Amino acid sequence: MICRGQCHCGAVSAVYETDAPVRLRQDGCSFCTSRGVKSASDPSGKLRLESALPLIRYRFGHRTADFLICPACGTYVAAMTAGAVGPIAVLNVVGLNISELRDLPAEYSNLDGEDVGARQARRVSRWTPVKLVEGRP
């Protein structure tokens, strides 16, 4: 399956490729809850993110991933971190308005109490290899 989407203003676009059944996740953190985030990833898939401008990067307290935000409309589009063979990411199918996925039900994940090592191991085992292309200001 190949899914395409873009943020509210169209400055950030995504192409997500997966052969696996899509399983969306939601977590209970205030950042994701306030944005209605539903996340998708597939470690055997591919993700390409393109942005006309450099993305805003936000890091939470553990500082283990960059949360990528469109600098034009403020949409949270994905989170990205280093993987064993390159960058990996999880995408926000609601923020990227991926019509085939955004209305599917999501499984709730409580990540409270997860230590840094467990968090990184979970991401490496679940997140998608990503190619990020950003434009100039």
Tell me what the structure shows.
The protein contains 2 helices and 11 strands; from the N terminus they run E-E-E-H-E-E-E-E-E-E-E-H-E. It has 137 residues and is mostly beta strands. It has one domain (2-134): Beta Complex (Metal Binding Protein, Guanine Nucleotide Exchange Factor, Chain A). Strands 1, 2, 4, 5, 6, 7, 8, 9 and 11 form a 9-stranded mixed β-sheet that branches. Strands 3-10 form a two-stranded parallel sheet. A hairpin with a 6-residue loop joins strand 7 (66-69) and strand 8. The protein is globular and about 35 Å long. The termini are far apart.
- E-strand count: 11
The secondary-structure class comes to mainly beta
What portion of residues belong to β-strands?
A: 35-45%
Q: Number of helix segments?
A: 2
User: Any idea what the radius of gyration is?
Assistant: 14 Å
How widely separated are the two ends?
33 Å
Low-confidence blocks of residues = none
CATH architect. name: Beta Complex
Largest sheet: 9 strands, mixed
Can you tag this structure with a few keywords?
2 helices, mainly beta, 9-stranded mixed sheet, 137 residues, two-stranded parallel sheet, Metal Binding Protein, Guanine Nucleotide Exchange Factor, Chain A
